[in-house]
């Protein structure tokens, strides 16, 4: 097991900068998600770490050893592919045995290691089956067993759950996390699914256009996004744009929004504030404002979407549609067209410098 | 209701007419190879005399062995070279790849008569001349594009992640090819090999140009025998060839069907 360091890695495909000076430190034993829209470079980065492709510049090391020019077959990594890439001409057991067999391990060792790996993914009895006889979830487990049986230094997962339906995906998320904890392997996970990134990983790196936008624990990125992109890509956010006032912004119509005590930006510069929909309180303009909620705006409900445990209100305000999520407490619901007061605390407001 | 039944009946009639058109001449020839009369006279009287005398015809026997030998060697060379070429075209991008791929098809379409003439002139020019070796070279050149086309078609169904998965598990290039890629394309390789065998074994035009009186193949020998005077021995040897060829083609069809499955 080993940590992975990516330092100043760039990779161009023709004129296209697939990776632009990316540096990330993947801690030993951690579960790391690389999150980004398609074309953001997350898969390119994973392939650099795997060794399928080499960077134009920068360094990659696994367990302190420089590997940026080492081909994939010599890197001792394990990889799970998007479509599993199980060998169709081999049984499940032979698939799992492949990595040990090409290394020339003795037959008895292979047999017991394969059985252990299959037991770990709870497929102990299916070794004799062919890949096409398995369900999607089972194939996923075989691919995982095959990737970890060789005791790789790092486990790389390329959107491994993308091909599964929703219910199975949630099961596999839990399962994958359990197995990762059990063997304590450094895991790097590429996904475009923000929910998956939030629930599974210890740290998330958000990529966009080949650059690392922000990196840190899920809570930190969610609560303190450093860019509008990070705020809106990981979760929902209401974005207000205006001029910085020091610890907040002034909207074009003169309304001031103040952010938490820590926020500070030179007055006058362009800036924006991000507020999560669930942090905003909504009330019929007559209600008394909670004193902590220093930020308030008037608006009008344009639409309500009821989702059982919560409702999403769309509120029109100065040409902008704001989103507010309210837990279902059984209290009176607001009708569409009703004037409302929105309020939230400065602590729930993230001040973001304009790029 | 009525029209449906009539159409159905017409459809069935059409199938039988088609099969009769295809197979009747062959069936008659096969029957005549077992008929006593050498002049196609009826009533039919059973005999295996022509097969027996075929066995005594040294020229036909030696030409048959030549044909089999050349076809087998052509098959071996073409499957190995053709599969390797297909893999190279699949895996690597290199200068002139598109041109090379485009140039693979014309030899299939160029009339054999022209190819044969060109080969004859070329082989004389470079000093190879005519004979069995020249025939073998000619057959390899004719059959190679078929193998490449068939194996390449099979490779189109191969998922490149499989090779990447094998590499990520520590397999070197040779292990990747022998354990993952080859097993997948094997039905294509076998089908391509059967094509190569058929192209060589059935080849007349090019063989005719490149053969010498002592060194010839079965189709050329049959043609020479017919010109000298027709004997039911020709029927007999043709019947044997048809049985062998049809068996080969059935095998090909079988492998092609398997080629479509995952």
Structure description:
The complex is a heterodimer of chains A (355) and B (262). By secondary structure, chain A is of the alpha+beta class. Chain A has two domains: 4-223, Rossmann fold (3-Layer(aba) Sandwich); 239-353, RNA polymerase II/Efflux pump adaptor protein, barrel-sandwich hybrid domain (OB fold (Dihydrolipoamide Acetyltransferase, E2P), Beta Barrel), CATH 2.40.50. Chain A is 24% helix and 34% strand. Chain A has helices at 42-50, 92-102, 107-120, 136-148, 166-183, 194-200, 218-223, 228-233, and strands at residues 4-13, 16-26, 31-35, 57-62, 65-66, 77-80, 154-158, 186-191, 203-208, 211-216, 238-244, 248-250, 256-258, 270-275, 281-283, 295-306, 310-317, 320-327, 339-344, 349-353. A six-stranded mixed β-sheet of chain A has the order 6-7-8-3-9-10, with helices on both faces. In chain A, strands 13-12-11-14-20 form a five-stranded antiparallel β-sheet. In chain A, helix 5 links the parallel strand 7 (154-158) and strand 8 (186-191). The longest helix of chain A is centred in the middle third of the chain and has 18 residues, at 166-183. Chain A is elongated, with a radius of gyration of 24 Å. The two termini of chain A are 39 Å apart. Chain B is mostly helical and 262 residues long. Chain B has one domain (58-259): Orthogonal Bundle (MetI-like fold). Helices cover 79% and strands 0% of the residues of chain B. Chain B is built from twelve helices and no strands. Chain B has helices at residues 2-32, 49-56, 58-91, 97-103, 106-109, 112-126, 132-155, 160-168, 173-201, 205-210, 218-228, 232-259. In chain B, helix 9 (173-201) runs antiparallel to helix 12 (232-259). Chain B is globular, with a radius of gyration of 23 Å. The two termini of chain B are 42 Å apart.
